[in-house]
Amino acid sequence: MIYRIVGAIVAALAVALTVGLAWFVAQTPGSVFSDESEHTIAPFESSGSMTLITVKPGESAKSIGTTLQQRGVVRSAKLFEVLVGVTGSQNSLQAGDYEFDPGLPAIEVVKRIAEGKTASRDVLIPEGRRLEEVGELLEKADVIGKQDFLAALKAHYDEPFLQQTRLTSLEGFVFPATYSFNRKEKPEDVVDAMLRAFQQQVADKVQFEGQNLTLDQVITLASIVEREAENPAERPLIASVYLNRLRLGIALQADPTVQYAVAESAASIASYGYWKKELTLDDLKLVSPYNTYVNPGLPPGPIANPGLASIQAVVRPASTNFLFFVAKNDGTGSHAFAETLEEHLRNVEKYQQ
């Protein structure tokens, strides 16, 4: 009986100690385990901005704790080290870049590093951007540099759909989406993530049966549709116009392809950006394989990276006899479509005053 009482007392003390430690850790992130229990440290005055900490491979808890204290993430390196021991995370601390909000409890700091929750950047890659623009977005988000991204596009990748393309450029196959990347990612890993998204969202899902177009041709035409369709609902209609013109051997005369060709000039990019809005007659005569006013058929490859909706519009276009369309300039991005040149000219006169 005595042993049972003693055992119960010991168990109660253990529970009380555990609860007390948990309360101490959770409620007093700035307290210090020290030889003098009455000793306290004044609260750290944070600037309110995120703090970036790099944990090196094999770095000890003591070393990490020292860095965290020096940077103001935790108020005590010793506290961090003790928490690592209490949680059994000594062998779980993972290398990488970490971002911490000011005032984050020390136990949460330990948890993030032990679970490898490194600093990440959510990067939105919108539809219809060319590769150089994607590189600029990644650089702005501090993921990788633009030139590093462009260089990584020339590496070898293993996604199955790449066996179906004869193109030497990955333009068109960098899938537009929101990605979560760590700071200073390996450029090849960034590219691979985007190609893998294309494989999963397009190559593995879109039904290409019933079309006389190759994968390269579908993505090339979809990239033109993406740049033309300001009103998303019109994608299948615009796709039908271009498919009808291809079938009849009529030049596409697609402005976005000329914009792409014009932007091959660094001087033009400096003056007008990647997509020159007001094309001149000289622009329409530009000698380039991408100029669909001069050359019949599709351009040599995609002019941008289309989204899933534009790709589906090419694969499943509207059933029309339209051969022309012109912007209505009504603020909605809508177009007026026509089957004949005469009807088209009337639309031009009506909407292009």
Task: Give a summary of the structure in a few sentences.
With 353 residues, this protein is mainly alpha-helical.
Account of the protein in words:
The radius of gyration is 30 Å and the shape is elongated. The chain folds into 3 domains: 72 residues, 2-Layer Sandwich (Dna Ligase, domain 1); 83 residues, Dna Ligase, domain 1 (2-Layer Sandwich), CATH 3.30.1490; 108 residues, no CATH class. The N terminus is likely disordered. 44% of the residues lie in helices and 8% in strands. The protein is mainly alpha-helical and 353 residues long. Strands 1-2 form a two-stranded antiparallel sheet. Strands 3-4 form a two-stranded antiparallel sheet. The protein is built from 14 helices and 6 strands.
Broad structural category: mainly alpha
Estimate what percentage of residues fall within beta strands. Answer: 5-15%
- Measure the end-to-end span: 102 Å
Q: Spell the H/E element sequence.
A: HEHHEHEHHEHHHHHHHEEH
Number of domains: 3
Oligomer: single chain
Count of β-strands: 6
Largest sheet, described in full?
A: 2 strands, antiparallel
